[in-house]
Write a structure and sequence with these properties.
- This protein has 306 residues and is α/β, with parallel strands linked by helices.
- The protein is built from 11 helices and 10 strands.
- It has helices at 5-16, 22-39, 45-62, 67-82, 89-118, 135-144, 163-173, 186-189, 214-223, 259-262, 293-301; strands at residues 127-130, 152-156, 177-181, 195-198, 202-204, 207-211, 228-231, 273-276, 283-286, 289-291.
- Helix 1 (5-16) runs antiparallel to helix 2 (22-39).
- The radius of gyration is 20 Å and the shape is globular.
Amino acid sequence: MVVDPDVARLIDEIRDDRTHGAGELARQALGVFRTVTENSQAATSEQFISELREIGQELMSARSPMAPIRNIVKRLLGDISDSIAAGDVGFLREFTVSRVDEIINESLQALAKIISYARDLIAERDKIMTHSYSSTVVALLEEVFPRRGGIKVVVTRSGSGRTGEAIARRLGDSGLLVTFIDDTAVGLNMPEVNRVLLGADTVSAAGVVNGVGSYQMAVLATRHSVPVYVLADTLKFDATKRHRDFDTEDREGAELAAPASLGQTVSIRNPHFDITPLELLTGVVTERGVMTPDAVVAYLGDQPTI
């Protein structure tokens, strides 16, 4: 199948995006399905579903470490396949657009529930550290700020990209007192922090996949008895992943240094993701409430692995 140029551009934007969180990108993926549906020339239901499945494969491979994209694609395609007997291709087009809107709304409702649970974890005058862009963490801090006096936030550079700067700028624009630090200064600042808040791209029994540097932050927080909470809806849970092998989405080495300046025997590795063991976490805040690491493993164990 030749992918429509507009659709290919949308998929490339998701593939190349290093700023937005997995939840936001999953909702963008649903928007791709809406565009495909609106532009589809399929004459039969079978042709239409085949077209959507191919786009789904493109989306899932675009950001393989991000469970919500994979899960949201499978959910939508499953719902559409279940409805194929209910009508012709025109009906399926209408159903797809309607279901896309419903799933996006469900995702936003889950975000609101997470914020409502996580709000109770923050006290007045707390100093919070965060790393790697999470739309959920940012939304929580923006909402809590007017309710809790004296909150301060420590934001890391968050790797070689400009993610940390975007977080610091947005929170600063909201009026929060923000200290922006290099990733290498996490240990120096951790003793002054009350809690660490992180997002997630995938939550599995093997650990939490998030922006590289999250693992070392959790280790340092544990060393200083600082609670670590991950904010993630259950759409980010992956019951199939039981080992620590995953796509780290290595970036261009030139983001770190000019390769030619280091010499011929020096190679550069610039991963975008790492994985944090669940035992380093205090809890995972989901739309179902705050789960302990053991509760996360139990929940994953009850989910289908296909």
